Amino acid sequence: MAVPSTASSVAQGEGVVKRFGSTTALSGASFSIGHGVTGLLGPNGAGKTTLIGLLLGLHRADAGKLTVLGLDPARLGPEVRARVGYAPEHHRLPPDVKAQDLVRHLAEVHGLPSREAAARASDALWQVGLGEERFRPVGTLSTGQRQRVKMAQAMAHDPAVVLLDEPTDGLDPVQRDQMLALIRRVADEFGIDVVLSSHLLDEVERSCDAAVILSEGRVVAGGTLDELRGGSRGLVVEVTEGSEGVVAWLRRAGCDVNLDGGRLIVTRGHAAAEHDLHDLVRDAVVSAHAHLRRVTPLTVSLEDVFLDLAS
Amino acid sequence: MTAPSSARIIEGGYRRFEGVRSGRRGAIRSVAIHTTQRALGLRRAARYKILPVLAALLAYVPAIVYAGLAALRPPDTFFDNQFLPTYAEYYFFITSAIVVFAAFVAPEVLCTDRRTGMLGLYLASPLTRYTYLLSKALSVMGVLAIVTLGPPLFLLIAYVLIGTGPDGPADILLFVVRIVAAGALVSAFFGSLSMAVSSLTDRKAAASAAIVVILLLSGVVTGSLVEGADVSPQLLLANLFVLPFEAVIRIFGESTEDVNFQQLGATEVIAATIGWCLVFAGVVVARYRALEVTR
Question: Nearest chain A Cα to B34, which residue?
Fold first, then answer.
């Protein structure tokens, strides 16, 4: 029976280590993947594909703890994989098999009865925009169409979560937009959580609700995109008069304040954790008798975050 | 004007699957059936059906002819059981069909999965590496059983028809058991050998050629060493081409005509055949344990 992802998180890892011989692919990765669309972000060789392999239970972690949908994939791999769809990075698929036959067969392998698998394969191929081409051999399809076939086979068996390894690899800009829109639909309309790996920052920024950033086998950051962009890191304050007093007051309260033209970039610094940054700014403005024009969250692009973390 | 209808579209998008999933067993069955269909060229273009049909013809035509002659022979004529080959002898008729299937089926079902990335998709399902190999082995053995089991059963019918075959249900059952045991052993031997070779290369043609070369070479080398260099006849247990058929002779309780094999006991020959099956299976398992499949 289909089990929707009722676990509080789709996947969680704590201190996950994976070595291949002398190469350490993951060194103590800790992360939490929630519902919606989550991007595994990182340069080539960061450990994204290894992490997907671990989530599928295809590798056993050398150390650490990992759960997917509340289950240990190393111990209960088949149970986990029955509820997970997977689209690999490569574009190789059996060239002489019709798209419909391939998707139907893989749905059957995931436990669907034959008739249901045939119906759902057809539905899934329509949903990904290959309704008219579903009886064509895979070898005659374009790279973009093959990506869609991979997506169709990943979702045809009604998984709780799909893992997509570089789903836009090899696509032209139009196909890429369509694929990202499809990924959003899978999450928003079909209710299937999505984990996609990518090394393209704008792709993750456009399609994901959250991201886990990997670098050299370590998770260097993770959270919702707002959190990663610094939505809770600081504030941008614009005052028309009395800015010196505001700066002085905030610095006395332990905040870090940088001047950017007429704007004050306020971050928590050493300020006590119990004080809300908005409250501190309010009190500073009142104390300095300043004229407040605007307060906005401090945001940066994911690219800035990534470059900052990488450096 | 038509009356307003109560019909309405409930849902036009994605449907959840609320039924019961078949789990691991269903996955094994599904892969085994799909693989067998591919190996036999079913649901594929006509050119993929040529080889299986030819191999089946090679195996079945003599058996069907014998059964037909036995059924149509005039009563009380010169026909007796002498015109029929023994069960073990019949395996020599179907050697070519067995070798053809051994050389082409396992490379088709194993190399193709690795080359086309299907292995990664299978292992991302409820299948594990072991259950995947089990389903592939069931398929390979099943296809080989078409030529190792079917024809001897036709021969049994022929023997029963001319009245010189097994006598009574118990005797018939004994022969059926022997036919099944012999067919299963030959299928397991050639199936595991071809799977072992196919696990070592992604190239189908190379695997097919290697299987034939290994079979022929082992026969030539062991035969010439035993006959020409007076090496112990135990070396014949490494004659991969003849060993399984010698095991069949012993399963049916017949005597071999090969002078060198006559020096080897039934237990020795059958145990060696089973031993080779285990060695080949070990190669396949070791190879697949080490495979990286997520890329």
Answer: A105
Q: Where are the domains of chain A?
A: 11-228, 230-300
Q: Whole-angstrom Cα distance, residue A219 to residue A224?
A: 14
Q: Within 10 A of A248 (CB to CB), how many other CB atoms are there?
A: 14
Half-sphere exposure (Cβ direction) of A162: Cα atoms closer than 13 Å:
30
* Contact call for B21 and A86, based on CB within 8 A: no
Instruction: Please report the residues numbered 234 through 263 in chain A whose beta carbons come closer than 8 angstroms to any beta carbon of chain B.
Output: none
User: Comparing A52 with A1, which gets the higher pLDDT?
Assistant: A52
Buried b (16+ CB within 10 A) or exposed e, B237-255: bebbbbbbbbbbbbbbeee
- Where does A230-300 sit in CATH, by number? 3.30.70.980
| Number of alpha carbons in the 13 Å side-chain half-sphere of residue B231 | 13
In a domain, B119, yes or no: yes
Structure tokens at B42: 């079913």
- Number of structural domains (chain B) is 1
pLDDT 10s digits, B215-257: 999 999 999 999 888 889 999 999 999 999 999 999 999 988 8
In order of A129, A257, B49, B96, the CA distances from B54 in angstroms are 41, 84, 9, 10
Using alpha carbons only, give the angle A166, A168, A169 rounded to the nearest 5 degrees: 70
Interface contact B125-A49, CB threshold 8 A = no
> Does A4 sit within 8 Å of B122, measured CB to CB?
no
What is the ipTM for the molecules in this complex?
A: 0.85
Q: Which CATH class is domain A11-228?
A: alpha beta
